[in-house]
Amino acid sequence: MSQQTLVQTPPPRCKEKAPLAITVQGNSTITRTAERAIVTFAVFTEGNDQEAVSKEVTATSKSLQSFFTEISPKTDSGDPKPEAPVTAWNMRSMYTGSYRPRDAQGVDLDRVFTANTAFEVEFRDFNKLGAVVTQLLAKPNVNINNTTWRLTEQTKDSLGSQSRRRAVLDAVTKAKDFAEAAGCKEIRPVDITDGYSSVEYASDMPQRGKQFDGADGSQLSFAPEDVQLRANVSIKFYAV
Prior knowledge:
This protein is an alpha+beta fold. The protein has two domains: 116 residues, 2-Layer Sandwich (Translation Initiation Factor IF3); 115 residues, CATH 3.30.70. The chain has three helices and eleven strands; from the N terminus they run E-E-H-E-E-E-H-E-H-E-E-E-E-E. The strands form three sheets. Strands 2, 3, 4, 5, 6 and 8 form a six-stranded antiparallel beta sheet that branches. Strands 1-11-7 form a three-stranded antiparallel beta sheet. Strand 9 and strand 10 form a beta hairpin.
């Protein structure tokens, strides 16, 4: 009886089969040092005399309005001048209210009246930022909420394009790895879905991110923090 020799045939190559579908996520993160600092703070006063409370907040707010107008000079077109340490600022309308506190025995005390407003100021000169925050902290009726570190719109637009391109390249690299492991040699994108594109701003409470500077320790200094731009895409490939 003759002996038959079994010959094993290699498995079909990837391109001889139906295209292999591969779907991957591509991600990108670009980090840059902040170019702007947004400081938000409130002007708040309370007391038993409604008129006096409102006048105090109004007087402080008008003084701050004059101050920020002075340090944010504009060109004829309305853009900040090159030497302006503050590029923009705004003030919220004043709010007033009242409440009646109680003592430890639950007895109503005299009514307390409140008045408050809020400012948002954008700095590009961080030395001036430290000087202004130092002045604000010295005011008894001013409470600083936080400092948010940001990029300019021009930088965000430029880096946003880079971030999306990097996310696509990241997806392509992953797809090639999967395709080669499966015995395929070529990939072709057939569908791209934008997952998200976002900017993650750094934010400080008043006590963070500041150091005392100067011989008498009276001047605060700020060091800008990093801002991250993230992008994510989902891409479907056919591999052969």
